[in-house]
Amino acid sequence: MTRPAIAIHGGAGVMRKITRSKEGAYLAGLTRALEAGYRVLEKGGASLDAVTAAVVALEDDPLFNAGRGAVYSSAGTHELDASIMDGKTLRAGAVAAVSRIKNPVLAARAVMEKSPNVLLAGRAAEQFAKRNGLALVRPAYFHTAERLADLRKGRKSCHGTVGAVALDRRGNLAAATSTGGYTGKAPGRIGDSPIIGAGTYADNASCAVSGTGWGEAFIRLAIAHEVCARMRYRGDSLARAAAFALARLKRLGGDGGLVAVDRRGTIAMPFNSRGMLRACVGSDGGRVVRIC
Ligand code: ASP
User: Fold this and answer.
1) Is residue 116 predicted with pLDDT exceeding 80?
2) Would residue 179 show up in a list of annotated catalytic residues for this protein?
3) How many angstroms does the Cα of residue 267 sit away from the middle of ligand 1?
4) How far apart are CA 146 and CA 124, in angstroms?
């Protein structure tokens, strides 16, 4: 039996905005999501269920830029992206530019499990989610005064995407990512989070990865797949593969970070931004919860 491990992130590059008073709330939010995911693994549950539980907890927390706390587009709307991948079967699901799905990661999972497709977008994705019994909400559900102020004041958007990667007792890896994108993004713009290989990837032969940062660069470099591919084809360690991918990101002028776990339970949480909200439980049961 493999010892389980999990790592989550709540976005990269937000540190300037987190005041001391909010620090505690972010740490608590990360801890809640971490424990929600780890509980599943401890009981012998699947890594897919663990990453789903952790990401749902982060989507429901208005502090994070995913689900409830998603940022505004330039049109004053919310367009959410999410994806999930199963490292055992390489099955994957994703939704993009959805505005009414309460928990986009659940819709991504439904696409993976209940459709022959990998990525559904917009209205059709919402209708698919509804047909599969998922909760739809009014746009007002995603309204938060602070995010609206960010848009009105033209405040440079912080990242805040959420994600999780996990290894379960059976040795199976999984990854999931969910985001509102960035403040003031063009309507219709889709980032890396719902793109399998860019913001999310999982393969039992190497590792599971969830990223956060400048999505366009993550897509161009296929960052999540890059980390897995370097392990698989070059025999790199997880830390080395992840560091290499981030170095490429930097050369393109991109900032961000990622969380990753390999099939032995090794965890990497590198970033090249000012900080990254992150937390993990390693295969030794040790916990780390950090915001910078
Ligand atoms: N990667 C996300 C996107 O480009 C944003 C983020 O991680 O902050 O949509």
Assistant:
1) yes
2) no
3) 21
4) 30
Across the chain, what does the average pLDDT equal? Answer: 95
- Please give the model's pTM, rounded to 2 decimal places: 0.97
Report the nearest-CA residue for atom 7 of ligand 1.
Answer: 212
- In single-letter form, the type of residue at position 246 comes to L
| Ligand 1 contacts CB of residue 181 (under 6 A) | yes
Q: What structural domains and CATH numbers belong to the chain?
A: 5-290 (3.60.20.30)
Helix (H) or strand (E) holding 84: strand 80-86
Residue 13 Cα: closest atom of ligand 1: 8
Give the pLDDT confidence of 13-58 residue by residue, as tens digits. Answer: 755 567 777 899 999 999 999 999 999 999 999 999 999 999 999 9
* Pocket mutation for ligand 1, best pick of 58, 179, 255 (most atoms within 8 Å of C-beta): 179
Is residue 87 left, alpha or beta, with left meaning phi > 0 and alpha meaning psi from -120 to 50?
alpha
